[in-house]
């Protein structure tokens, strides 16, 4: 578990994972409570995790959390020609990924509201921001319309597009696409256009700002953004315990990860800056891979 690795780094140095120096210093910006975490990821009902969960439920119940679902990709790698979110992954219920995620979000929010129904907390709804691509926007929006937004309120679902950027060849030249115009003479006319592709997850912050949804979040007094990928069916979104942890950490960014289970596994790695801010930068790779992120 990630928590066990953090504890191990603090106790024995774990040079193979952490490198030289103090691990907590390399995690600058995150309070020292991180280095004091012990136990496994499964012990989520014990202190301090129980306190984190209560804090997270409060954030959800009071509308301080917005959920961002990254859903602009095609499912071509798994033989699905449509948006990943519309994929049936073989469950007995045949629920799509979109349905699974929206129902999970609503369930977490309902639990939060129920937890504070007898207090002075005024429950609010949860806003869900879905990043698509220009190629898939209409298909995804129509799917939500057809399925009555999977139980969510229409006013709480917000679609926005990632940017479209030009593609380049390996030699640095612009990639082009040959188009045939059958309307120009019997043989048609070939024209060239610049190949473009959606900006991907890295375009999230720019796309939110360009769409005006960052301003919408400010108006709704959203303080935390829980972001995750549509092709992660195991994501607990939004995870109240994790939200409470991020709030206590006081960090601008928290990242939930899973460990590699075997060598050469095709998962991303987290790279930490091993140098103090005042010195030259170097990096060391941990053995965690990106799963979902929040705040």
Main attributes of the structure:
disordered N terminus; 295 residues; alpha/beta; two-stranded antiparallel ribbon; disordered C terminus
What would your notes on this structure say?
The structure is a single chain. With 295 residues, the chain is of the alpha/beta class. Helices cover 29% and strands 20% of the residues. Strands 3-2-1-8-12-9 form a 6-stranded mixed sheet. Strands 4-7 form a two-stranded antiparallel ribbon. It has a two-stranded antiparallel sheet with strand order 5-6. A hairpin with a 7-residue loop joins strand 5 and strand 6. It is globular and about 70 Å long. The relative contact order is 0.17.
Largest sheet: 6 strands, mixed
Helical residue percent?
25-40%
| N-C termini distance | 21 Å
Low-confidence stretches: 1-44, 279-295
Strand order of the largest sheet: 3-2-1-8-12-9
Rg calc: 22 Å
Q: What's the mean pLDDT score?
A: 75
Beta content comes to: 15-25%
The total count of strands amounts to 12
What is the N-to-C succession of helices and strands? HHHHEHEHEEEEEHHEHEEEE
| Shape assignment | globular
Structural class: alpha/beta
- The count of helical stretches stands at 9
What order do the helices and strands come in, and which of them pair?
Blueprint (H helix, E strand, L loop, with lengths): L1 H11 L2 H4 L4 H4 L22 H13 L3 E6 L26 H19 L12 E5 L4 H10 L10 E5 L2 E3 L9 E6 L7 E6 L1 E3 L5 H8 L1 H7 L4 E6 L10 H10 L4 E6 L11 E3 L9 E3 L2 E7 L1
Parallel strand pairs: 1-2, 1-8, 2-3
Antiparallel strand pairs: 4-7, 5-6, 8-12, 9-12, 10-11
